[in-house]
Predict the 3D structure of the following.
Amino acid sequence: MNETTLKNLKHAFAGESQANRKYLAFAVKAEAEGYTNAAKMFRAAAEAETLHAHAHLKAMKGIGSTAANLQEGVDGETEEFTSMYPPMLAEAEAAGEKEAARSFKYAMEAERVHAKLYADLLANLDSKEDMNFYLCTVCGNVQLSVPDKCAICSAGPKAFKAIE
């Protein structure tokens, strides 16, 4: 693929992905403020951005086999908790930015868990065991069962949501 086209696809993928997440957050806010039509439009646009992002990812041949995708998950999550988040956390703490520091810390610790789960799935890819995944809606921790208390943020069991 042409280098410029690949660069453009990567840029478009990042933009569409960020727009999806931003619009979903905007939908939650609109819903909380009682603006149901605005919330619906934000969710519709978020879905459209997902379609665009997936098309860009497919065009740049960014979707491999499940094993390759799991390895990419391990690599990406590992880079985040070892290289990306530690300096961000340190800088936020040094600046006294408590909310940003907490956000970075929670993400960094959750990414460590995600990398391990991806690695475990990759190592046992042919297993037919049915697994359950539970997401802590406070910090992003993922567990195979609902704990009494989240190991990252200390949230209780009600903060965990089953992922289908």
